[in-house]
């Protein structure tokens, strides 16, 4: 059924048998006692002659009692906000028997026939005590509806804009910063703090309802399983054990949650990030070699080793080819040692009157000056500010870390608390939601021992899950949309981060060290 347009399905079991006829504006039924019901433009018309019907001649007969039909709707989870049921009957006690079979999400208008041209009209409502009852709407007396107290098919958005103090069951897990709860020995769940607690409290005030919290027995977020069962928070809502659930519940999930519950509009968007141990300080044992890379050091060694023999060849050419017999004779070893002395900023021991050798010495002195300046400056910085291993900030760096022997984990492998312990002692990268990672690391009191990646990916949205067909979904969505557009949910998240950090510092005698230049290099 298309959720965008309201449809009406009619059941008229007056004689235990009726024929469904497809009309352009509605579905109506023609029972055996010549009573036809048609709903056009949300107005009810009862006709006494079935000869005016139109539709397929071979439509199958309907033998279901309304109570049996609603049981089938419950069994197959066919509740829908866009589908209304109009039941026409002469049974007096149907308002009680049918109400017991209804579930929120099935809206029923009941026409109880009192005579040939007289019928009483009832509409199903969810009372503040949570029970579904039929309330009297008005009387039909042949020509129209007289003395209507309310709409036969009410506007659900208006009806659910005020729940009149109704009490709801909300299921959640202990999952700070979204929901921090305390479970007493008798099973009572006490809310303490969290982003989702602020959200449900705002909904409670805006829609005028009260609530109390419960927890799933398995402690999971859950979803539909291969064996057909539905676990965790989602399972409780699916089985109507709770009216709604919110607890960092992602709408975009590997589980097909949207097939078993109805989600509100997203009220919080979050991305995934990488969590790893804080970069460790590099050893200073070989700090003297750290200013240059291995490639640069190799080039310097080759240059020093080659410049001596090169100068020896030049001096020989000067003596034998260019006829400079006054040129002093030096061995290749002496020339190499002299060039090395120049690199170490020592004076030159070789004298010459040849401009060729003077130009070569000038080029070597310039090279030595640049090498010395870069090396001494970089070494000073390295010794003054310790160097750290490169952090894992992106998926590309994650792939490199994998090749270096890092282990990659997710929430399916272990709890985040256990993962924090692993991160401090092993080469491990954890993939988790960004806010949850920051808050858990802060809550541990050792935030400085963990690195939260700067790059985020795989955005996911969080919503409230309601029972299939529940009108609560649209009522919640209207409020959540305004909260999200106003930025209140993100403001509450920021407050939780700040509050968690300050309470953690106040509750511990020791904590992270003060920020230093070393942390700025991290």
TrEMBL record:
A GO biological-process term: detection of stimulus involved in sensory perception
SUPFAM superfamilies assigned: Periplasmic binding protein-like II
Residues spanning the membrane: 294-314, 355-375
Domain of life: Eukaryota
Tagged with keyword Ion transport: yes
PANTHER family named in the record: IONOTROPIC RECEPTOR 20A-RELATED, IONOTROPIC RECEPTOR 60A
Protein name (database record): Glutamate receptor ionotropic, delta-1
Native organism: Portunus trituberculatus (Swimming crab)
């Amino acid at each position: 059924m298309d959720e965008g347009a309201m449809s009406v399905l009619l059941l008229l079991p007056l004689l235990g048998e009726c024929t469904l006829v497809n009309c352009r504006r509605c579905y109506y039924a023609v029972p055996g006692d010549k009573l036809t019901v048609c709903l056009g433009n949300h107005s009810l018309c009862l006709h006494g002659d079935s000869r005016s019907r139109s539709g397929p001649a071979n439509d199958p007969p309907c033998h279901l009692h309304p109570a049996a039909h609603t049981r089938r709707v419950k069994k197959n989870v066919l509740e829908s906000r866009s589908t209304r049921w109009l039941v026409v009957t002469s049974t007096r006690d149907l308002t009680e028997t049918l109400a017991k079979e209804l579930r929120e999400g099935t809206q029923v208008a009941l026409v109880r026939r009192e005579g040939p041209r007289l019928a009483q009209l009832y509409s199903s409502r969810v009372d503040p005590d949570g029970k579904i009852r039929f309330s009297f709407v008005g009387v039909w007396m042949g020509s129209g509806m007289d003395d209507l107290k309310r709409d036969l098919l009410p506007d659900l958005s208006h009806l659910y804009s005020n729940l009149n103090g109704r009490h709801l069951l909300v299921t959640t897990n202990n999952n700070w910063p979204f929901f921090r709860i305390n479970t007493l020995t008798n099973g009572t769940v006490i809310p303490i703090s969290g982003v989702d607690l602020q959200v449900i409290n705002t909904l409670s005030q805006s829609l005028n309802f009260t609530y109390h919290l419960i927890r799933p027995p398995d402690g999971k977020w859950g979803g539909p399983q291969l064996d057909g069962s539905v676990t965790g928070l989602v399972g409780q809502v699916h089985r109507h054990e709770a009216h709604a659930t919110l607890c960092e519940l992602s709408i975009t999930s590997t589980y097909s949650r949207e097939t078993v519950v109805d989600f509100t509009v997203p009220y919080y968007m979050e991305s995934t990030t990488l969590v790893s141990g804080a970069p460790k300080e590099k050893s200073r044992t070989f700090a003297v070699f750290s200013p240059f890379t291995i490639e640069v050091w190799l080039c310097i060694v080759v240059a020093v080793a080659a410049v001596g023999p090169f100068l020896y060849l030049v001096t020989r050419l000067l003596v034998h080819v260019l006829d400079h017999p006054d040129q002093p004779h030096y061995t290749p070893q002496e020339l190499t040692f002299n060039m090395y002395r120049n690199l170490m900023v020592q004076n030159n021991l070789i004298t010459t009157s040849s401009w060729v050798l003077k130009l070569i010495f000038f080029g070597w002195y310039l090279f030595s000056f640049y090498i010395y300046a870069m090396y001494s400056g970089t070494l000073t910085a390295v010794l003054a500010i310790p160097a750290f291993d490169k952090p894992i900030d992106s998926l590309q760096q994650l792939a490199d870390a994998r090749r270096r022997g890092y282990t990659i984990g997710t929430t399916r492998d272990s709890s985040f608390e256990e993962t924090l312990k692993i991160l401090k002692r092993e080469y491990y990268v954890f993939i988790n939601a960004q806010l949850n990672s920051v808050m858990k690391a802060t809550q541990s009191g050792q935030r400085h021992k963990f690195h939260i990646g700067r790059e985020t990916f795989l955005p996911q949205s969080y919503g409230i899950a309601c029972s299939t067909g529940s009108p609560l979904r649209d009522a919640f969505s209207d409020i959540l949309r305004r909260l999200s557009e106003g930025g209140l949910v993100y403001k509450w998240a920021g407050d939780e981060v700040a509050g968690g950090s300050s309470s953690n510092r106040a509750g511990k005698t020791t904590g992270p060290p003060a920020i230093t230049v070393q942390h700025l290099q991290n």
